[in-house]
Amino acid sequence: MKNTKNIVLAVLLILQAGLVAYLYRPGQNQAPPAVAIIKDLAPESVTSLAITDGLGKTLTLAKGKDWQISGSDYPADQEKIETLLKKFAAMKASRLVSQTPSSYARLKVADSDFNRKVALKANGKQIVFYLGTAPSAKSIHLRLAGAKEVYQVSDLAAWEVLAEQDSWWQTKYVNLPAAELSALTIANAQGGIELRHDQQDWRLAGKPDAALDRHPLETLLNAATQVTISSYLPKDFNPKGQPVATITCREAKGGTPLTIQIWDKDKPGDLDQPIKSSASPLYAKVKEYAIKELLTAKADSLLAAKPGPEGKDSGKGSPAAPAPPAAGAGKSSPSVKDRK
Fold this sequence. Notes:
alpha+beta, Immunoglobulin-like, eight-stranded antiparallel beta sheet, 5 helices, 16% helix, elongated
């Protein structure tokens, strides 16, 4: 009798295991793939982006040839805007938080009580949604206007969607590939520096046979070709006095040279200095530390240390090494003239 019960229990156990295996076989209980919250949104089709904060302040970004900050003379950060639009297009309806209108105000996604209201124009249609409270630093609550569902979306934060102009300025004021240069000249309070590329290495004018120290050379080239500003100055701004430094960058393939001029601080305690690039119609402010190399560079500081007695170097700088790639090597970027 006992054996019969054991057999029956074993059979039941086998049947149960088989049923579980059948019900949970691969592909049977997988959740359907999450769909996009904003259906068929193509980032490149967006021509306008308006952001309203919880206090009612609105900023509008409009796309013509490039993105611009509406009502402003300042260019917008193209890459930053395009990155945000891609995030909007990638938002998935995978985590439903609420469908109850009474929760909208608490989650800050109500029509009149929100942290952010975002209005997009794409293909002639307007898309509006609300961003609310943030469950974590990398997620936020969202509700489409006219919809009842509130979702928690990932990889998006309120600080990425600000209604402040200075959040969208194009702060990369000078952006040239150092490897594309054929010549660089600097005139500052220390004297003058003239560098030319001879298709193999950088050479110092007046000392063509002198080896250059790679570290200060690359630091100087980067300082001249990559300038990030802290803010723009008014369109009618006029600097006082003469520039304290003038930098000229020439590209190997020709075109109009890029000229950068830097003026002294308006007041001794200022942290910013006026700067003007010939590629921009606007003056800007730049932090002193960002242009320190351009203001203090001296020709002698670029020279590599000479070997001392018994092959030992003199202790000045690092050994001579190859400079940045030859001008024109690799894929060329648009000339300075074309970028204007």
